[in-house]
From TrEMBL:
Organism: marine sediment metagenome
Gene3D superfamilies: 3.40.50.880
Name the record gives this protein: DJ-1/PfpI domain-containing protein
Lineage: unclassified sequences, metagenomes, ecological metagenomes
Amino acid sequence: PGGFGAAKNLSSFAFEGADCSVNPDVEKAIREMVSLGKPVGALCISPVILAKILGDVELTIGQDTGTAEAIEKMGATHTMTSHGEVVVDKKYKVVTTPCYMLDATIDQIGDGASNVIDAVLELT
């Protein structure tokens, strides 16, 4: 998933930051994917959900320092990235990219999304 809905509908991150909660069905799905060793791709703001659920996961939301600080407060490691770059956490098989967390064009969003797909396929 990706987009602002992840921060306000799938979780309460938009309102509560690092103290957020995650929709129980979303949390269950992510935990099941991880326990089965299946890769998970997350775009834009949605990596905050993975930070909340998994804790010590490595991920990116780009270069927003406030969000990066919240991610680290949840126990995760944030890596600063730019357009199209992905961060792969091999322990959890999680792949993330910032998309619209950066001032991006639709082509840059497409590149990031494609790179996440490629990295997820490499983890299968």
